[in-house]
Amino acid sequence: MTMAGAGSNMGLMRPTHQIHPVCPARSGSPFNSAVLMRAFLPMSIASLLSIPILLHAALPVQMGAREQPARELRRIIRGPYLQLGTPNTITIRWRTDKPTSSLVRYGPALDRLIHAVNADGINRDHVIELSGLVPGTRYFYTIGSLEGVFGGGDENHFFITAPPPGLQKPTRIWVLGDSGTQNKSARSVRDAYDKFSIQRRADLWLMLGDNAYTSGKDSEYQGALFEMYPRTLRSTVLWPALGNHDARSANSTNQTGPYYDIFTLPAFGQAGGAPSGTEAFYSFDYANIHFICLDSAASDLSESGPTIEWLKRDLAANSRTWTVAFLHHPPYTRGGHDSDNDSDSDGIMRQVRENIVPIIEQGGVDVVLSGHSHNYERSFLLDGFHGSIEAFTDAHKRSRGDGRVFGDGPYVKFGAPPAPHAGTVYVVAGSSGKTHKFPKFKHPAMVTGINTLGSLVIDVCGSRLDATFLDDKGNHRDDFTIIKKLEIP
Ligand SMILES: [Fe+2]
Question: What's the predicted TM-score (pTM) here?
Answer without folding.
Answer: 0.89
